[in-house]
Amino acid sequence: MVAPTFDGEPVRPGDSMKIPMMKRYRLFGLAVLLTLVLAIAPPVLARLRPNHVVFQTSTIGALLEGVYDGVTSFEDLKRNGNFGLGTVNDLDGEMIALDGTYYQVKSNGVASVINNAMKTPFAVVTFFQPEQSARLTNIASFAALQRSLDQVVTTKNIPVAIRLTGTFASIKVRSVPRQTPPYPRLADAVKHQAVFELHNVQGTLVGFRMPLYMQGVNVPGYHFHLLTADRRTGGHLLDCRIQLASVALDYTPELRMLLPDTASFRQTNLGEGTPTEINRVEK
Ligand code: ZN
Asked: What are the residues facing 95 on neighbouring strands?
């Protein structure tokens, strides 16, 4: 049997480590190239998919005042996160982003996939990178869920993205109907919200816990949107009874905001949204 060869030369016993000079240069070049790629790739990828950064477009205060013109396309939003919540142009329902797919749940309760050309007036997203996990059992209400999560989070001063997947004995969600200009304030728009109650359903709550000091910028405390496991429905969480859930948390100490440079955003008085009103509309 002929031994393996380099460049056609038979390899004799004891020659196995001898690599011709040209091959050595090539291997050296390859090693240098590989080292460079390994050194450069992580920072480049980190810039493309920044970790632990929460991105939001517009403010909850502006949404409260009826600034519903979509300014950021979902194509742009996807560059800033694969996980999050918000709404769609003209306040047309609730938005949920999970594992990179963006869904819209209109006021008829039906979930559909959002296309890249659509726009959002308010959204909060991140590239979800769980750092902590927990299990929850027998949660009697949304209030009880918030108390349980308060025991799990390690700080209330840094925004945290929360993914809760589980079985819900019951869950109450809402969606808002599409509005037409001149837009009403959010408090008036939600008077026509559709409320759905689902029983024995599996699904995922996508959301955030925002520090209370973010009042006016985002929803202080917990804000969740549901997407059912069959991805057919969901909405903004109002109440729930949880049998069993697994929770994953991603702390996001970096906050990026893109404010709409539009006439309506520039001219709206954003000093007046009261904490009470955000509570009434979102909680
Ligand atoms: Zn919501």
From this structure: 86, 104
Helices (H), 49-113: 60-64, 74-78
**Predicted confidence (pLDDT) per residue in 191-235, tens digit:** 999 999 999 999 999 999 999 999 999 999 999 999 999 999 999
Inform me whether the pLDDT recorded for 93 exceeds 90: yes
Domain that holds residue 103: 53-282
Contacts of residue 129, Cβ cutoff 8 Å, sequence gap at least 6: 51, 52, 250
Instruction: Tell me, in angstroms, the distance from the centre of ligand 1 to residue 206's CA.
Output: 10
Say whether both 120 and 260 belong to one domain.
Answer: yes
How far apart are the CA of 49 and the centre of ligand 1, in A? 24
Is the residue at 119 inside a domain?
A: yes
Q: What's the whole-model pTM score? A: 0.85
Find the 37 Cα to ligand 1 centroid distance in Å: 42
Q: How many A from CA of 102 to the centre of ligand 1?
A: 14
